[in-house]
Amino acid sequence: MSIFGSVIQGLSQALDLYEARHKILTENVANAETPGYRARDVDFGSALRQAFEAGTTNAGEQAEPVVDARATVKIDGNSVDIDSEMARLSQNALKIVALSQILAKKYAGLRAVINDGRS
Q1: What is the pTM for the complete model shown?
Q2: 119 residues of the chain, pLDDT tens digit each
Q3: For residue 85, what are the contacts with CB-CB under 8 A and spacing of at least 6?
């Protein structure tokens, strides 16, 4: 049992997964011109479910990238669409910021309880 509770644990695991996804998406952008490279992503729902079932503390390390089956493969074998990858990166970054802010508020609430309401 975690001292911080399941909500903070879940938020932390989700943040780890979004960070891992961000790395994979940046790799896609970096390989946009690499012949034969296939765009990858993280199956977020499955990865988060596995993290909770396994009780891991760093879900991002266990997130397995999967080839994006929806991506159109170009003639050189590359399936990276730079526009959609940049949109995914932007959306993912917003989720990271939002989760970070939520976690910060949760920790601020714990700090207030520890300090008996004094900040």
Answers
A1: 0.81
A2: 455 677 788 888 889 899 999 999 999 999 999 999 999 998 887 887 777 777 666 666 777 889 988 889 999 999 999 999 999 999 999 999 999 999 999 888 888 888 876 65
A3: 25, 28, 29, 32, 39
